[in-house]
Design goal:
By secondary structure, the protein is of the alpha+beta class. It has helices spanning 30-39, 89-103, 145-150, 152-155, 159-185; strands at residues 2-6, 12-16, 55-58, 63-68, 74-79, 117-123, 132-138. The strands form 2 sheets. The chain has a 5-stranded antiparallel β-sheet, with helices on one face.
Length: 188
């Protein structure tokens, strides 16, 4: 059964009347990661990034790698193994479980303006005997928001188009925060 409620910015969001979510805690490991991935029916796939392209980005908890499928489609691989990133295993698994819980959630999974989690593959970091999950995400054709706004196409956008883009971003952020509250409280 689906309920309808207004999210403010971006219009109406369809919400499930009841949501059963596997428990997330501060002590996640590979087993809890697999349980959450199974719950959200995420695909395990046998593809990987192109090492020759190097990393295309890095953040506080991950590195981003790239695979180009064709002239229109690229995939981003979010590698979160703690090796060399200054974080421990538990924190890495907490990050992974949190991310797949939000991106796999029915309110988020196929929502416009939020990147799709396409699947999960595996990494065996050098010098390690442990296998680590890698999140596979669609890569935005026009790059990140800053790259787009600095591009010729982005600079040609009118004030109204830029405002609409801001509204889309705000709507996506509100949906993710709302989902995060559902995940923590277990209810809408």
């Amino acid at each position: 059964m689906w309920l309808s409620s207004s999210s403010g910015i971006g219009g109406t969001v369809q919400e499930p009347a009841t949501i059963a979510i596997p428990s997330m805690n501060m002590h996640n490991d590979l087993i809890s990661f697999l349980a959450v991935a199974q719950y959200y029916e995420l695909d395990f796939v046998f593809i990987t990034w192109e090492p020759a392209l190097g990393k295309i980005g890095a953040g506080g908890t991950s590195e981003i790698r790239l695979s180009i499928l064709d002239t229109q489609t690229s995939l981003a691989f979010k590698c979160t193994a703690p090796t060399g990133l200054g974080q421990d295993e538990q924190r890495a698994f907490n990050t992974l479980v949190s991310e797949i819980s939000v991106l796999g959630h029915p309110l988020i999974r196929h929502r416009q303006n939020i990147i799709n989690l396409e699947g999960i593959c595996w990494e065996l970091p050098l010098g390690s005997r442990k296998v680590w999950p890698v999140l596979i995400l669609e890569k935005a054709q026009l790059g990140d928001l800053q790259s787009f706004l600095c591009s010729e196409q982005g600079r040609r956008k009118s004030f109204g188009e830029r405002l609409s883009l801001c509204t889309d971003v705000a709507s996506a952020i509100i949906a993710m925060h709302r989902c995060r509250k559902i995940l923590h409280s277990g209810r809408v």
